[in-house]
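Q:
My hope is that you can spare some time for a protein that puzzles me. I hope you can help me see how the letters and the tokens relate. Thank you; the sequence and its tokens follow:
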Amino acid sequence: MMTTLDIAHQRLHNQHIAGTPFEKPSDVVQWLGAVQAQDYAGAKWAVAQRTHGITDADMDQALADGTILRTHVMRPTWHFVAPADIRWMLSLTAPRVNALNAYYYRQLGLDDAVFAKSNAVLAKALQGGKQLTRPELASTLQQDGIATDDLLRFGHIMGRAELDAVVCSGALRGKQHTYALLDERAPQAKTLERDEALAELTGRYFTSHGPATVQDFVWWSGLTTADAKAGLEMAKTHLVQVVIEGQTYWLSPSMPTAKVASPTAHLLPVYDEYTVAYKDRSAVLDPVYAKQAGNGIFSPVIVIDGKIVGTWKRTFKNGAVVIASNPFTAFTAAEGQALAAAARRYGEFLGMAVVLL
């Protein structure tokens, strides 16, 4: 019978943090369905550590090339999503995100007429392969009579353009993010009927994130409980269920039981899918340490053998990345060695020497 600790190990394996790595960033994003990405630096590391040898510069290049896209698609926040998935996923999730945003739309004086005009202005400004920054687009909207002085209002205008499949991420310009037309970044993006899209997203989530509960999927997707249950009903022929301590979990039967060398350490960023993708994180985080760990999502965390055992912070000094670890309890010598190995891998990702404190 699967235990709580087995849930953690299986998730490590199914999310490809442990086991066989992917070759390309786009493979990771497509496998997971979407990767939370409002913290861009952390999201790049989240994807890269599920690959073999992908660097920080490689991740920037993937965004520039459009092999991964960054947009608002669920909950609502930024996610990385694969170009092939972006259109059907938005058609499924955007109505729900708009419903969650409705209060702010009203407070900010944003209605369908304003959005129709702002979307048209943005589409015209970006057509022909142009990629513009937020300040540039704010100025363009302002010139066309759409107020953007309020940053919250401007943010919702841009977010709505993403949800309406008008814009998505372009390449970085220096350290500034740009926007581009979705039609030009993902011209071959497929569409699906709603039930097909719901079944696809549900199956994708439980295959890549399982073992997980229906409540976990509701949290991750931002969909209603009714939709989540309907999606599971359509997808469950490709899944199996296990009951642990009275709770029903779903996962793919094709995923082998995880076998991970012990101790193995991972330095996970904020909002990593290993933590943020579940409403109930007790399988990987002892509730006693929830506050110290930023509830497992608001702080970068140290994971050893599937369990969150501390937090970490990075700073840069003299051309090196300095990693300060904050364990909840003292590490053994073997755990310290595992942590040092994880730190070296992070240094390789950045192309920098590492100092572990």
